[in-house]
Amino acid sequence: MNAFQRNESKETLFTFISAGDDPPKGDFPVQKKCPKLCGSNYPLSIAFIVVNEFCERFSYYGMRAVLTLYFLSFFHWDENLSTAVYHAFSALCYFTPVIGAIMADSWLGKYKTIIYLSIVYVIGHLIKSVGAIPSLGNQTVHVVLSMVGLFLIALGTGGIKPCVSAFGGDQFEEEHTSERSKFFSIFYLSINAGSLISTFVTPVLRGDVKCFGEDCYALAFGVPAALMVLSLGE
């Protein structure tokens, strides 16, 4: 058998399908379609993502709105120490997205990273709320619980930050570019709405509601914690 014959025999191993032919059944798996929202081209999952982000931003900014006052009036720290701890917490929140991005890209993927770090986030809020109960231990206990809670909150809020918007965009099929663009507009609207509303609501909960004979920081931190639990449930 000459070289041409050998090449010809190899070519017979391949079959060619014209543009008008249907591909053989079983060789190409059919991509499963995601459930749509009210008959539109929007995946149903994005409704949960938008609500999740509203609750998460409410919980973060609601807690942060009274954090400095908490240090000043509950711990009786001076302004310099209160400001330093507040800014250290904020800086940590903006550093931890690096950790979340590495976890999502190199290890767990976006979905599992969001779930696992949201659990860490919820635990941090709960610990922070418990640490604000005056009758629970002395000031050292309150400080330790609050610092541990703040660390876990910083890890959670920063860790999911680079994942949620990208995960939402991944829910759309390639041809639905217009719907994907509108989703991001709604997504960032929910972020700003949650941040704005919590900035007004949480200080009211702290100042207008009394518990344990003083300003109710436990409630002011507890409501954001409850919203974060709801966010994780979504």
UniProtKB/TrEMBL annotation:
Q: Which UniProt keywords apply?
A: Membrane, Peptide transport, Protein transport, Symport, Transmembrane, Transmembrane helix, Transport
State the Gene Ontology terms under molecular function: symporter activity
One Pfam family of this chain: PTR2
Q: Which GO terms describe its cellular component?
A: membrane
From the record, give the transmembrane residue ranges.
58-77, 83-102, 114-137, 143-164, 185-205, 217-233
Cellular localization per UniProt: Membrane
**InterPro entries on file:** MFS_trans_sf, POT_fam, PTR2_symporter_CS
- PROSITE patterns per UniProt: PTR2_1 (PS01022), PTR2_2 (PS01023)
Q: Name one GO biological process term.
A: oligopeptide transport
The organism's superkingdom is given as Eukaryota
Q: How does it sit in the membrane?
A: Multi-pass membrane protein
The similarity comment for this entry is:
Belongs to the major facilitator superfamily. Proton-dependent oligopeptide transporter (POT/PTR) (TC 2.A.17) family.
Q: What is this protein called?
A: S15A2 protein
Organism in which the protein naturally occurs: Oreotrochilus melanogaster
The record's gene field reads: Slc15a2
